[in-house]
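Complex 200.
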Amino acid sequence: MHVLVLNRNFYAIQVATWERALTLLYLDRASVVDDQYQTYNFSDWLELSRTIKEHPGGFIHTPYFRLAIPDVIALKFFDEVPPAQEVPFTRRNIYQHYGYRCCYCGRRFPTSELNLDHVIPRSRGGATDWSNIVTACIPCNLKKANRLPAESGMRLIIPLTKPKAGPGLVLAARSPVPIRSSWQRFIDKAYWDSQLETDG
Ligand SMILES: [Zn+2]
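Predicted structure with zinc ion bound:
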């Protein structure tokens, strides 16, 4: 079970294990944030945990008390925004960046029907990075083949862009953490950090 960690301004900065989150809470370095944006210190949360019957995050039990595992905590003394991060160049992030649309016809597709396309073909020195890769549906990908868009009578309806390197939360795919619905209000966009599997 993981806990979303916000800074003092309720900006999502990381994901922590529940053990780490409860330690921060116990040390009074963080408060629990509920879905009404109310905050609780350790003793308030302990009190509240007595009365909660069901809690999706579960409880920890000790001989003396039980404590609900929070969904979200906010640090009390950390108000910096983490440094801007580059959005990792991964298949999943590329799909997300282009809204799961084919950049040539603009239509939305399930990921199983989207390919990654080198705008300038690799055979002509086109790079495999944000500057040259777009999403393409299978028919558009076949039509374009190994040519420049103009040579295939095509054009990019959705322009090639690099995602803004914002202070977004990057979740590591190496330790996959499912995004809990209660986190969603604090996260605009979460990107995943993993290797790009290329089409070859
Ligand atoms: Zn298409």
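The chain is about 15% helix and 20% strand.
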